Amino acid sequence: MTDRPITLAVIIGAHGIAGEVRLKLFAEDADGLKRYATFNDGALTLKSVRAGSNGAIARFAEIADRNAAEARRGTELWVPRASLPPLEPGEYYHADVIGLPCIDAAGVEIGRVVAIENFGAGDVIEIERPDGRRAMTPFKEPAALLEADRVVVDDAYLV
């Protein structure tokens, strides 16, 4: 596994006039960001973060006012993969699954994972087939099984 950067949130705008920013979270919740003192190789130093409507509200030492906050819109907040907490058995990071090849039970490649969604009943993977069409399947057994370097998919569950 490489130590590639993993995006945990993105700045989507300013909050108030004092330099706070609104975040779209890719982490589990706002508290998950508190374990990191800095983001983007030290370019942004987290001073505080709290839950907000549809995401989180954060303050960074380098963002002093609303203009600076607005200028950071679209900035991804990332950390090295190695700094993420270890996983329990059966857990996975989306970043480790996206891009994996998908094969059927016979070992034939049927595509690659391009997204993971959760609509309330558990994770669903989106698979892009070689012809560009996309299909979705629940990301749990028996529909799909995560192996070390691929996902085995039961064709019967593809939608």
Mean pLDDT: 92
Fraction of residues in β-strands: 35-45%
Oligomer description: single chain
Report the biggest beta sheet as strand number plus sense, adding barrel if it closes. 6 strands, antiparallel
How many β-strand runs? 12
Distance between the termini: 30 Å
Shape: elongated
**Strand order, biggest sheet?**
3-4-5-2-1-6
Number of helices: 2
Radius of gyration: 18 Å
Secondary structure category: mainly beta
Order of helices and strands: EEEEEHEHEEEEEE
Helix percent band: under 10%
- Sequence stretches where pLDDT stays below 50 over 5 or more residues: none
Features:
2 helices; 159 residues; single chain; mainly beta
Outline of this structure?
Helices cover 6% and strands 43% of the residues.
Textual characterization of the structure:
The chain has 159 residues and is mainly β. Helices cover 6% and strands 43% of the residues. It has two helices and twelve strands, in the order βββββαβαββββββ. The protein has helices spanning 66-71, 94-97, and strands spanning 5-15, 20-25, 38-39, 44-52, 55-60, 76-80, 101-103, 109-118, 123-128, 134-138, 144-146, 151-153. The strands form two sheets. Strands 3-4-5-2-1-6 form a six-stranded antiparallel beta sheet. β11 (144-146) and β12 (151-153) form a beta hairpin. The radius of gyration is 18 Å and the shape is elongated. The chain starts with a strand and ends in a 6-residue tail after the last strand. 19% of the residues are buried.
